[in-house]
Records
---
Amino acid sequence: MTFLTQSDAILEITPAAAVHTAQHGWRAKCLQRLVRMDLPVPTSFAISADAVRAIAAGQMPDRSRLASMIERADGLVSVRPSAANPAWGGPGTVLNVGINHDRHARLVASHGRAAADALYMGFVQSYAIHVARLDPDMFPDSEGGLEASLRAYEHETDEEFPQDPARQLAEVLRSMARAWDGPTARLLRQAKGAPAQAPLGLVVQDMALAIGPGVTGSGSIQFIDSITGIPRLTGRFRGQTQGRSKGEGAETLYLTRDPRGPSFEEAAPEVFADLVRFGVAARERLREEMQIEFVVSDSRLSIIDATRVSRSSRASVRIATALARDGIIPPEEAVMRVEPRALSDLLHHQVDPRAPRDIIARGINASPGAATGRIVFTATAAQEAEARGERSVLVRRETVPEDIRGMHAAVAVLTERGGMTSHAAVIARGIGLPCIVGASGISIDARARTLTVGGRVFHAGDELTIDGTSGEVLAGAAEMLEPALDNSFSQLLDWADQHCRIRIRANADTPEDARTARMFKAQGIGLCRTEHMFFDEERLPAMREMIFADKPEDRRLSLERLLPMQRSDFAKLFEIMAGLPVTIRLFDPPLHEFLPHDREGMRELAESLDLPLSDVTRRVEALSEFNPMLGMRGVRLGITVPEIYDMQARAIFEATVLASENGDPVVPEIMIPLVSARREVELVKNRIDAVAAAVRNESRKDFTYRLGVMVETPRAALRAGEIAEHAAFLSFGTNDLTQMTYGLSRDDAGRFMGTYVSQGVYAEDPFHILDRDGVGELVAIGTERARSHKPGITISVCGEHGGNPESIAFCLRAGVNYVSCSPFRVPVARLAAAQESILMQRESAQMTPPAQS
Ligand code: PEP
Ligand code: MG
């Protein structure tokens, strides 16, 4: 065995020692920084990850080396894990390694029997459970005391409790090294992003004993509130923690002065002042908000450990920006420190993590934020509740376009079916409504107006809380945290924008969406889904009339009624976006989505159109398709029923003329959905050009427009070169592109997605995180072919992936010019894009050789 003689296998942590995070772990490195600051840190040793690996394989360090570590520690040490990243965890700390009959006897003499017994017994039990792997039930609390614990150990193992401190230490090291290799530990850390073979270092430290006379005990202190991130001194101090038990002098003190009882601050004002001073210094030197663990022995302070303060999303933003504002870290570093997803927690109410949760079901966390309301089972009931001033949660098997108004009226949505890009999910994200979809454990009886889950029955009117951030459905009302759109939030995003290499636009269908988009500083609208505008109560009849028209002339007449409404929709969007680009997608869904689906609805429609019911039913049936998502929709409708696109183009151009009169000239962007062939683009382009010419003539105003194509069929991606010839921009609609690449219905995927992901068929839900290998390859191929035909063409992504951090990183590297996502995801996208831009910049700086002087 060679490594045991290498001097770096076990290193004393001194200011100059070669301690490296990758080899010795974050805890060892952090302790070295504290040592360099001259803080009273007990003597500590770092055992390298290579050494720990060897220990796990049975190659133990030299006995005399272990013995000497314990001897110089006056017989007692602690062992703590030290992974490269604190989030990866590690085996639990073991205290008081080295205690045996002799050391116990000395402790009895110096500190009394009760303290000595408690210390010894604590170690015997922890050794028995973690090292000898005995059943914890054999050691019920402190029953029977030290003697009983030693007897139980000897009875079970047929040997005396090990008295050789070096052997104790060797066995503790071995058990910790092996625990790190166990499958549970591996899975847990992999879930936190650790590589499967993540290294583990260990730290052996002299025990600072929290027993003895005077102010003695152990505690922790931090300077920030973990939930709010607001500066606040918090912590705890427990007197005599390693010795006497309650009633024998053990006392929990408030850390700071408190009217409710005695405090550590009052009991030991000088030690407290030192502690605060050390904490402030540690924040500056470690460039982080730290929680400091300390021991006080007869008013003598030891700093035994420091860990990064655990923090909520909102606290992470405040902490990072405060560190940068105080000049402790550069703003770029603050941008890198906040998890982009954390920002979406700040935009909405959140269930207070400290509050109890009565979880009744789980589903896909389709739109973040939390809200409490009374159960309603129909969109109409949601609207009625809103009219009464009541908050409602809309519970549906799945939502359909007709439910949109109900969704606007509800405070949250829960569906039994669906996935990340199903109707409910897309709309909810768009309007910032907490939403859970695909909660397959629930059962809805719309007639009886009940929701049954796990044997519990909830009725219409009962209260539910939807936590769209975690995907948990809670019974009753939960305690909430308010949104936190404060200065730290906007400051962080302003810093982020300075680094961002791509633009971030918003998918916005209504003036309200557009205002939200501007509030979050979106750089334009990348997708306005115009069909949503037709579900309005006033417009639906005209729309239905148009669908029922047999002749083009009749159709044109109905469309003429819709024209002014569309014109004013677009004019409002242009006005709100004040010169920023606005991309309007022409009509996309199958027409039958606008028709009633039940008998009652058809009867009402027959009445309003003054037609026999049989005509209406026949027409609805004629429009129904086996596979509507692959049927008469998008550009196919635009070519077969061209009057719809004509009307929309006219509305866009007339709005352009209007808006340009009042402000800067508007250059609208018109986008054709579901293209799969170049000829489709040519046909639509010819008609739109003709409408533009007509509007120019009539208004005697000149304007230009940009025509774009949505790439959302695999064929369009493959033929992007020729398609690009007629387009000023291409926008990847990755929702449909994913659906068509996988042959996977976006509305039904939720049913089996959980099984598929848990069994590793898909690494992730591809509607949630862009599938780089398949769909991503189509994006890359499409981009490359389009640019080779037309180098200056603008490329974007406007599917839901445009708001997903991992997918944004991919898009940025694939060379897209912008991504477009729901308005409430814009802040997340800004931060994610900035972080990836910074990473790319750092990579290229590493590759560029320094300039020759
Ligand atoms: C898409 O398919 O990615 C897209 C943006 O369009 P929609 O979600 O409206 O089908
Ligand atoms: Mg689409």
---
Amino acid sequence: MPGDKSIGHRSLLIGALCDGDVAVTGLSDGEDNRSSARVLGQLGVSIVRHGDGRATVHGVGLEGLSPPREPLDCGNSGTTMRLLLGILAGQPFEATLVGDHSLSRRPMKRVLAPLRRMGLEVLAARDDDYPPLTVRGRRPLTAIHYDSPIASAQIKSAIMLAGLYADGETTVTEPELSRDHSERMLAWLRSGKRLAARPIHVPGDLSSAAFLLGAALLVPGSDVVVEDVGVNPTRTGFLDALALMGAHVAHTAPREHNHEPAADLHVRHAALVGTRIAGALSVRAIDELPLLATLAARARGATEIRDARELRVKESDRIAKTVAMLRSFGVDAVEHDDGLTVHGDPERPLSPGQVDADGDHRIAMCASLLALVAPPGTEIRGAETIATSFPSFHDALAALGADTRLIRT
Ligand code: S3P
């Protein structure tokens, strides 16, 4: 598996603030992690890749970043832009942040509101705090307590990173616990008020592994093991939802890397049943909800996904996109404000889908999986976006024996 995207971003962005060289292993080749590395380079941090997921982040310490000469291009990566804004809040210089078409449509007010309270100045923004953004930080920042209205690790992490530059204790609460990779990594690196250079291993990405586990559940006869996958409990909602749908994913060889649990995951093709996914489970499975909806198409009975309004502001409006993608394969799916319902039927024939991924890697991967169980003729436009998180996805499917000729991109 490619390394976990969320932990990879943090190994680079937080590693850059350490006192000395941080040896990273398991780092993904995906474009999103590359965006974090590239913008850090513009801020004076040298990151050397040695191949095979190994890299050295030459940390410059909390005060060592330098002003960028050009706009910082965060590409497709919301995590890069939002976490970076938290770091930039504590830098006494100006910086401009830009992103691609998809990132330019994603709301930044959710991080700028608390960061403004801490002292970040927003000098320019489009409309209601959409990128491109020009900001100026300062040091020290004002410590705050922030009661976040949204369960979001990006908001929480931006505030925590700004908190490294604040003049007292900064605290954040959220309605449900979002992924806690920043908390774990800061605890791993913390040395008094500074960050020590310690090695970081990035375990395999459960959000990518989920697509291979999902392929195994869809394609009869499959039996798949994925090795060294992160199983942080704030991320394993997908596995819990699968259990509700009647699929058992076995964990073997449990281990821990820099406070992050990991294991090998084993699944066999299984008949699925519909379920309800809501509340904390939706938060813990947020990036896998489109995939769960896709699997629900081949499950017996209805699957209802609720409390997932956040899906509307991901790389695309993932509620609308997932419903449109499923309908294009002939699946009965209904959109709600905060989620969707899929009326699954394993016997109902699918039609070949016509899908426009529109800058959303997870939609393109969901459509690829349905293509494996639909008649030939599925076409996925914009599938190159898969490279943001899982560049080797189609090769991995082919290596598992999937007939990837069914996926036309
Ligand atoms: C991420 C947090 C989540 C998730 C995204 C990665 C992170 O976003 O959807 O893919 O690495 O912090 P939110 O913080 O907006 O929920």
---
Amino acid sequence: MTTEKLERPQGAAEDWTVPQDWASYTVQEHAMWDTLFERQAKMLPNRVVREFMEGLDVLRMTKLGIPDFDELSERLMKLTGWQVVAVPGLVPDRMFFEHLANRRFVAGRFIRTPEQIDYLQEPDLFHDVFGHVPLLANPIFADYMQAYGEGGLRADGLGAIDNLARLYWYTVEFGLIRQDDSLRLYGAGIVSSHGESLFALDDPSPNRLGFNIKRLMRTRYRIDDYQQSYFVINSFEDLLKQTIETDFAPLYRELQQESDLEVATILPEDRIFTKGTQAYAHAKKFA
Ligand code: HBI
Ligand code: FE
């Protein structure tokens, strides 16, 4: 999503943050959080990676109502040095990376209306706080998010934001992970969506491909529908290790020589996970 045309909204600071102003949320807005939270909390156990449920618990996000970002930040700071800061909506890429590189997660302060319950274009408070924040309590994932922010600032300098945005998209937003001999959800875009939490694991149509940074960075993504491809990591440790060990400058140069891949493409060398299990087979020769 190109965010360069964004104008800094009235009342936002230089770094695009605004006060959350928790006291101003209405009963309806708190009720919207509770409705969304209860629906997901009921269907995610055994579907979402264990560390996500542990994060909900340790951050005490199980209580009713929209979480107070200052309270979340106090707990997160002690666990992994992260804090949650309020923004009016999308912020320019560079600013976004700057915040992540300094362990500040930018969360929209607005929550969706009943008409938007199952789809909204921009990340709202439920997507950002329920989807993204619990895993920031996990030290390895917290390190990955900071490394991503630092990588983003470097990619910006190399004109490679689009490639790096794909890494965020196919891991932080829509990633799957192997755990206890099955596939589990961890991407915020999935776990904050009722429909996609079902689709990503149970539907036979999407491709579930073994994680490979270069292959992933060639792969386009769509922002207006369920994913056609998901990438599966072995563990957060493995994701962090591969990211930190990759020298992105030569990788970006290689990527410039290779064509982008359409969302549903399968390559012969792809490792394909069948729905819901660990087993994967090398892609059959696809004509
Ligand atoms: N801004 N508030 C906010 N939240 C995001 O998730 C976000 C953003 N700006 C840019 C962005 N994400 C993506 O383009 C990143 O991949 C850069
Ligand atoms: Fe997000």
